[in-house]
Every structure is written in structure tokens, then in C-alpha cells.
Amino acid sequence: MEAFGFFYPEYEVVRDGGRCTVCRVCERQCANGVHTYDPERGVMLADETKCVDCQRCVCLCPARALKIVESGNTFRRDENWTAPAISEVCRQAGSGGVLLSSMGNPGKYPVYWDRMLINASQVTNPPIDPLREPMETRTFLGAKPQRIERDEKGRIKNNLAPQLELEVPVMFSAMSYGSISYNAHAALARAAEELGTYYNTGEGGLHEDFYRYGKNTIVQVASGRFGVHKDYLNAGAAIEIKMGQGAKPGIGGHLPGRKIVGDVSRTRMIPEGSDAISPAPHHDIYSIEDLRQLVYSLKEATGYQKPVIVKIAAVHNVAAIASGVARSGADVIAVDGFRGGTGAAPARIRDTVGIPIELALAAVDQRLREEGIRGNVSVVAGGSIRSSADIVKAVALGADAVYIATAALLALGCRLCRSCHQGRCNWGIATQRPELVRRLDPEAGARRLVNLVTAWKHEIEEMMGGMGINSIEALRGNRLMLRGIGMTDRELEILGIRHAGE
Q1: pLDDT value for 1
Q2: 429-451 mean pLDDT
Q3: What is the pLDDT of residues 135-159, one digit of tens each?
């Protein structure tokens, strides 16, 4: 029967015996127990069945003696029953359990960012040199008044709703304390403060040490209400109601009990070792009217001083959902696409539910414009924003700003090994084990995050200058600046852009 459960390892550890000095760094660095020392032969061994290809051993091997490569073993070629499909059936036949996975959808679905090109100016509308001309990347998130109002003396009345001010249209998306480490949260908070932007607590509450970053914090209220109390709501600059998540639309969350330890338990206000299970729906929200009641309850609790964000997953009827959210009193709508990352999700949900953020964003922006309520809310797009070019394209499709998470974790050292749910992150990010958490220096991590967003800011300015545009506001929803390539007429119609060459 053991033969039924055996699968040749997905990855192989290639060790150069001529270079290896048996320093045992790989053994000390691998939390998965892949590398071990054989004292009788004086050599290092590898149990490749435990390897998740996190690249920690490769990066830290002083002799450059290691490589992790994909296994050369294959099943009989079959375009329908692929090797992953076969192995997943067999694993479930042996366990009877749901297959879990982490991070975003890795499937071969279209990446529409890569099918859109940016238009440029040359003669009649000359480009702008960002090194010599002012470029405005600042943006404000929140409801905008329909019209300018003046008092009896002709002075403009300040009827502006509470706003979030961003120096660059990039925020760090929701990642809860518990799913990621204390040091990872510290890096995000410090970077947000220095950049003049915001990071999101996720649904795990806010550690008491991070209250001092409140001016740059978005606090989240999810279905489990973990860590939610009045001081928490008032600590942040904005409140986000999480209705859905791109990596797992229509289902709740689950943080394993092995991660609910120490400060995580206290911050979430649940017992140590207990699983943190968020139900799929908010049990007090079954209509837009119910959502409106929560929106205004949160505004009331914070003296109407903070904008309220409602986060929804990108699904087939997302435009209609966004229309309802805009009428609920929300100040910002965050739309999360199906390639968005996660700490843990059923693999089937992550890989087959939801739609791409590019199509969802375009549909939402168009619907709100057609209904004349686009100014009532700001729109934030998330779900695999990988570069400054993706940001420019998202803004041109109608976003006011974007959320990034996976890109931020990559800057902190993540290698997308997709095993966050196991809690053994060798890079100190998705773990609560103290010896692993210490591997991530929050100061160095914050510096890398600042470097990343600063570099993107410069590139955004260069691209805007090439378009002859000197402000984010002038770019927002300006789809004339985009051209599609290799897309069907229907795809171009949904995106609201023309094909390259037109």
C-alpha cells in the first residue's frame, strides 16, 4: 500500500561535492528538515520530499554548492490528465482532505497587464521631462463632492469627506498578524510611514506596538471580528470592511491554531492554539442595506473622521456589487482580483474562482461612470500588481490607487515557495516560530520596501511624462492611453480600449 502514497519529489537538491565544505549552513537554515549531516561518511544528505524550493539554502550556501531544480521524473504525457492533476487525485484519495495552497493563482490564465501597451506623445502633444518639470503622483482616496459649494461671501465651503492622502498611488494590502510575522508587520508599518502611504492590518487586529503607526494604518473588520474593538477602530487612518478576497471569493478564512500563540492570541482576542476561523459571510450582512448599517456604525464609532473602505473580490457580477457598495455610504471600494495572494486557501478555490483584476476594474469603473456615481467613491485595485507599469495601466483603467502584497513580500525576501500555511517560512515572513521570525530584520525590510516603491514612483513619473501627462489625476480612467495586443474584440470592449494600430 505504501506505493500508492509515494510520489517522486517535485524538486531535487543538486549538491556539488567538489564545492561543498560540509559547513552545515544549509542544515541550520532549513526549517523543513531537508538537509542533514551524515557523521559516518562526513557528507551532507538531502530528503527532497520535504523541499518546497524556498531557495534559502541556495542563497546562503557560502560555497555556491547548491541548486534546487525541478524533478526530471514525469508521468506519461497527457494533455488532459497532467502530472499535477494525477498527483492531486492520489493525494486526496489517501487523505480525504481538502488541498491547501498559498500565495496567488499560478495557472496559465491570461495576464491582461502584459497584453496592454502604453501610448506615448511625440509632436502635437509633446512629452514632459520629469527631471525638469513637476510631476504629481499624490492622490486622495475618499468620496468627492458632486459640486463646489460657496457661502454667502463666495468662499468655498469645505464639504469634503475624510480622505486618505497618498504620496504615491500604492498601498500595502491586508496581511494579518498571525499569517505573517511581527517583524514583517513592523517592516510594512515603518515603510508606509516613510513613504507617506498606508499598510493594512488584515483581519488579525493591531499589535499594541504598532498603534504609533496609526496615521499610516488601515484597520480591517472581517467576518470573524478578530481583534476588533473601539480603540482599534480609532487607531487607524481608515477602516476596511472585508467582504471578499481575490484568492478565495465566497469563502472565509482559516489561520491554524499552531500560529495562534503569544501576542497573536492576545491581539486577535482568542485562546492560544485555537483555530481562527472566519465565516464566509458576515452574519449581520445579507444585503446592501445591512452593509450600509455597518458602514455607518463604524463611522459613528469613529466620529465620522475616517473613510470606510469595502473590499470585494473580483467575480462575474462585480460591477453590480460595486454599484451597491457605492450606494452603501462607503468612501472607497477595493477590488481584489483572482491572482491575489493568500496565506492559505483551498487550491481549487484559489485556482478556479474569480476573474482577473484588469477586467473587473474596467467593468467597475465603467458601471459607476454610467450611473453617475463615480465621484462618490474611490477605487483601489489589487490582485498581482507586479510593477510600475501595472500601476500605470490600472490607473488608466480607472483605479485611484493600487494595493500590493505579494510584491511587498518578495521585497522582504519571499521566494514564492507557496507553503505559507505550514508556518515554517525560512525567510521569517509567514511564520510565528521565534527562531525563524528573527531572520527578517524589520529595519532592512523597511528599507527595501521604501526602495521598491521609490523606484516605482520614478518609473511612474517617466511613463506619465512620456504620455504627456503630469498628474495621476489626469491619468485616472484615461483609457486612450492604452492599446491592446493579442486580444479579442470582446476583451477589448470590456477593457474599453482600442487595439494597437488603431
Answers
A1: 42
A2: 96
A3: 999 999 999 988 888 888 888 888 8
Nearest to 244 by CA among 296, 279, 214: 279
CA atoms within 13 A of residue 100's CA, in its CB half-sphere: 15
Contact at 8 Å (CB) between 62 and 24? no
Strands 238-242 and 217-221: parallel
Question: In Å, how far are 80, 330, 334, 361 from 379, measured between CA atoms?
Answer: 39, 11, 6, 8
Within a 10 A sphere around the Cβ of 84, how many other Cβ atoms? 11
Single-letter code of the amino acid located at 258: R
Band of pLDDT at residue 2, cut at 50, 70 and 90: low
Beta-bridge partner residues of 177: 180
CA-derived radius of gyration, the chain: 24
Other Cβ atoms less than 10 A from the Cβ of 239: the count is 25
Say how far apart CA 319 and CA 363 lie, in whole Å. Answer: 6
Question: Is the distance from CB of 401 to CB of 139 less than 8 angstroms?
Answer: yes
**Residues 204 and 228 sit within 8 Å (Cβ to Cβ):** no
CA atoms of 38 and 197, how far apart (whole Å)? 51
Q: Which helix (H) or strand (E) holds 290?
A: helix 288-301
Task: Return the DSSP state at 113.
Answer: G
Q: What is the mean pLDDT of residues 428-444?
A: 96
Please classify residue 241 by burial: count the beta carbons closer than 10 Å to its beta carbon, then call 0-12 exposed, 13-18 middle and 19+ buried: buried
Q: How far apart are CA 370 and CA 364, in angstroms?
A: 10
SS3 400: coil
Residue type, 275: D
Q: Of 114, 93, 52, 101, whose CA–CA distance to 353 is shortest?
A: 101
Nearest one of 157, 158, 464, 198 to 332, comparing CA atoms: 198
| 3-state secondary structure labels for all residues of 27-57 | HHHCCCCCEEEECCCCEEEECHHHCCCCCHH
- When the pLDDT of each residue in the chain is averaged and rounded to a whole number, the result is 94
Question: Under a CB-based contact definition with an 8 Å cutoff, are residues 141 and 331 in contact?
Answer: yes
| Cell of residue 381, nine digits | 485595485
